[in-house]
Amino acid sequence: MSATMDGDPRPDRGAVIKELVLTAVIGLALTVPLVSYQTIDAVGGLQLESRWGSTAVIIVALVLGRLGIILLRTPGYETWVAIGGGLAAAIGLLDLFRDSVAGMLGMTAWPAITPTYTLSFLIGVGGAILAIRAVLQISRRASSMSKAERDARAEAVGGQLRKLIRVFATAAVLLALTLPFLPFSNRYVLDVGTLIVTYVMLGWGLNIIVGYAGLLDLGFVAFYAVGAYSYALAAQHLGISFWLALPFAGLLAASFGLLLGFPVLRLRGDYFAIVTLGFGEIIRIVLINWYDVTNGPDGISGIPRPDFFGLAVMTRNGSDGLPPFHEYFGLPFSSEYRIIFLYYLIVAMAALVAIFTIRIRRLPIGRAWEALREDDIACASLGINRTSIKLAAFGISAAWGGFAGAFFATRQGFISPESFTFIESAIILAIVVMGGMGSLVGIAIAAMLLIGLPEVFRDLAEYRMVAFGAGLVMIMIWRPRGLLSHREPSVLLADRMPPGRLVPKPAPASGEAGG
Amino acid sequence: MSYLLQQMINGLTLGSIYGLIAIGYTMVYGIIGMINFAHGEIYMIGAFVAVIAFTAFANFPLVVAILLVLLFTMLITAAYGWTVERVAYRPLRGSFRLAPLISAIGMSIFLQNYIQLLQGARNKPVPPMIQGGFTVWDDAGFTVQLSYLQIIIVVTTVVLMVGFTRFINTTSLGRQQRACEQDKTMASLLGVNVDRTVSLTFVMGAALAAVAGVMVTLYYGVVDFFLGFLAGLKAFTAAVLGGIGSLPGAMLGGLLIGLIEALWAGYFSSEWKDVAAFSILVLVLIFRPQGLLGRPEVEKV
To answer: Where are the domains of chain B?
Structure first.
């Protein structure tokens, strides 16, 4: 299988056929039981329903796609691959949108070539990717530039992009600040905005430990849960207001971080990851089973909303001796004030994290984290106390998680262990990874994509997690440094090492599924 | 006393299943030094394939059906194991050190939801096929049962383990695998096809996980798409407890985890049994990271 054809000028027909047969056999094994039969609940046990049409289409598409990839490796066949890929893309997309296309043309929809919409989509996208790669290869061969020139140009484009990031960041901050007053803004937009900013904040919090210190924390949601529950319990039993409870929630989460961090910090990369995952699960199980305190799986409801800095409350009639917000400011009543207030609250909290992060990067401890991330043994030999800086990263990260948790509790008014599963940790981690560990702007963009897009495509909710998992794998393969990679160390020996040298060697661009 | 015995029988059965899964973790960690986070999902796929196959072969005589299902499930699941390695891990060799783990987490989430999409979110029940058993002990009304199914599970596991250990120790493929475990570069210089060996490791691990999947389908009679997450974590704990990289260690760890879980559930509370497993994982990693039978790892620059 791994016999490659890199050196060959033309594909060896026998080898190609062998690979295609192998692809077909594997495709058959992958699809025959799980795709071609669906188990249906019926009277007296399960029954099977067959889906052979889809199975056949998948296998044909797999074999053709594989053929396309093989042909791409040999110069001279790109045109064919481009045509074939384009054709597949056209078929897939036409099938996908056949109802609307037929409607526009004023005719009845034609029978689909691909059996389901999912398959139309996959074939369309796969064909498009093949075609684009083929065209790219053709244009690359047509251009007279040498590899070095191309690299230089790519570098220049990258530099331009990095300048654009500044512009983009400014625009994003402006958008975030003015969102409630924009013409298209309504309750729904603000709700989605609040959700996105919450995840931006969580991503920035986790970024300190994953992006700066380079420790893969898979249990971040534990601190989020600690923050949420500590505010909810404090408000319910002690009647403490949100503003008093907020620092308390952060501190509690931070001390949990230190407590959990202490034993695990001498573990190596992936052991560390699994142990943090274990801690996350332990906290969740405790929340479920410690019924007397946490109310178990039923969760805690009726968590009070934050008041307006102790001056007014965000309800219609006022409570606790405080006037309602609209009366205090002499405005007509609107339920949107509360939404807007919550939105600005999380924006302010996120801004705090951002400013803190930007500042701490320049402090010795920020530098020490970077050293730790790049090479922890070298870092220790420079006299840096690894344990204390790791603990600091863990504690700070946890504190931000706790703040976000308290906000989550007050916004939802209801929390239960359901909200703090491993998937939540994975989503936050994916935001950090996709954004390019360490880049604040990248993380914000990734949060918009990962949280915002599924909100837009609500109808496709069942596909969300499949796409999410596949997306994580693809990012690791194609852009392991994230969408906006930003890992140049803050300090460089200016003359001797040009930027980019100290950046760890990029992974071999192995888009080829073959090889 | 009889209660203890019953819990131990149950624990050993459960432990055999964990042990079979743990071998996949241990071998993959041994050869490429990564935690194959998606391995629990491979086991879950094995269980689903088993459900489909049992439904399809329902009219065959029982023994034939079980053998057919076992073979079929091993084949299909092995194909999934191979594909996962090929698609999600092989392109990442030489990438930064956390990349394979993140990719594996993505793969795990993908497979879980892929099965949910294809087969639906509901539990899949399978009618009990092997019933009955021995009464080992009758103690004033409390009988200790040893079911035929439990015997089958433990015996299958033992047979597979012995066969597998012999395979790794004696065949040329096993030698190549051990060579790659020690030094991939050197092995490739000596003519070992490293990529193929790594692929085969995944295939073997997946096939054993498939057996575990068939067994768990028979044992509990119900399968759901979320099955792999916890079982995977516990099997990983078993691999770590036994000493990651060591085959007998994986088996020993599996049995211990199974026993601890059953006894914990029997004597303390079944709600907290998962905490027991995770606590063991944390404690072992902190105090004896090389596990019971493993070699300590040397940190290299």
So the answer is: 2-287
| B2-287 belongs to CATH 1.10.10 | no
Chain A partners of B106 at a C-beta cutoff of 8 Å?
430, 468-473, 475-476
C-beta atoms of B98 and A216 within 8 A:
yes
Cβ atoms of A401 and A209 within 8 Å: the answer is no
Report which secondary-structure segment, H or E, holds A387.
Answer: helix A386-412
Residues in B 115-134 with any Cβ partner in A closer than 8 A: 115, 117-120, 122, 124-127
Query: Is B98 within 8 Å of A38 when comparing Cβ atoms?
Result: no
Give the closest-approach CA distance of A164 to chain B in angstroms.
27
Among B95, B117, B196, beta carbon nearest to A2: B196
Judged by a CB distance cut-off of 8 A, whether residue A69 touches chain B is no
Classify residue A65 by burial, with Cβ atoms within 10 Å: 0-12, 13-18, 19+: buried
Please, is A460 exposed, middle or buried when counting C-beta atoms within 10 Å of its C-beta (0-12, 13-18, 19+)?
A: middle
Domain that residue A24 falls in: 13-138
List of chain B residues whose C-beta atoms are within 8 Å of the C-beta of residue A472: 102-103, 105-107, 109-110
Please give, one letter per residue, the 3-state secondary structure of A173-196: HHHHHHHHHCCCCCHHHHHHHHHH
Distance from CA of B92 to the nearest CA of A (A): 6
Complex ipTM value: 0.87
Could you tell me if A83 and A110 lie in one domain? yes
Residues B75 and B79: their CA atoms lie apart, in Å, by 6
Spell out the per-residue pLDDT of chain A, length 515, in tens: 444 444 455 667 888 888 899 999 999 888 888 888 888 777 767 778 888 888 888 888 888 888 888 888 777 788 888 888 888 888 888 877 777 777 777 777 667 777 777 888 888 888 888 888 888 888 877 766 666 676 677 667 777 777 777 788 888 888 888 888 887 778 888 888 999 999 999 999 999 998 888 888 898 999 999 999 999 998 888 888 888 888 989 999 999 999 888 887 777 777 888 888 888 888 898 899 888 888 888 888 888 877 777 677 766 666 666 777 777 777 777 777 788 888 999 999 999 999 999 899 889 888 888 888 887 788 888 888 888 888 999 999 999 999 999 999 988 889 999 889 888 999 999 899 888 777 888 889 889 888 888 877 777 777 888 888 898 898 888 877 776 655 555 555 544 444 444 444 444 444 333 33
Q: In terms of domains, do A116 and A20 share one?
A: yes
Question: What SS3 state is found at A356?
Answer: helix
Give the number of domains in chain A: 2
Q: Which of A220, A274, A424 to mutate to test the interface with B (most CBs of B within 10 A)?
A: A274
